[in-house]
Specification:
The protein contains 5 helices and no strands. The chain has a domain at 70-117. Helix content is 58%, strand content 0%. The protein is mostly helical and 133 residues long. It is flat.
Length: 133
């Protein structure tokens, strides 16, 4: 049986002065979104796909609330908001990757588990009603 993972120790929050010193020392530059001319060579198709995702409206993505195997638009929005709140809290706490994954993965994968349960029920019925003779 695998051992439960220990939580990573939290680092103390840096003061504004310490943060500025690190930014200067490592020459960190915070910039907004890059224009297509600034994208790394060989990767424009990836950057373009990401850019196109932001243009999709929810109504285009899921125009019919009943087509998503029982999930309504309000349920999807509620799940998305719940995921946003958890991720935002972790970001503010400066959580490491392990802690971030531990808090967000259950929310993300819950949807897949629910879909799997739904998909398996009809399959079992079909198999039992068409027994081999």
């Amino acid at each position: 049986m695998p051992r439960p993972r220990e939580k990573s120790p939290r680092r103390p929050k840096l003061s504004a002065r310490q943060m500025r010193m690190l930014i200067d020392r490592y020459r960190i530059d915070f910039r907004g979104p890059l224009s297509p001319s600034q994208w790394p060579e060989g990767h424009p198709e990836i950057f373009n796909r990401v850019r196109q995702i932001r243009l999709i409206e929810f109504d285009e993505y899921r125009p019919d609330e009943t087509t998503d195997r029982g999930f309504s638009a309000s349920q999807l929005k509620k799940c998305a908001y719940e995921l946003f709140k958890v991720a935002n809290t972790d970001r503010k706490k400066r959580a490491n990757e392990s802690d971030l994954r531990r808090s967000t993965e259950p929310l993300v994968f819950r949807r897949f588990r629910e879909e799997m349960k739904w998909c398996q029920v009809p399959l079992k019925r079909n198999l039992s009603s068409h027994a081999l003779t």
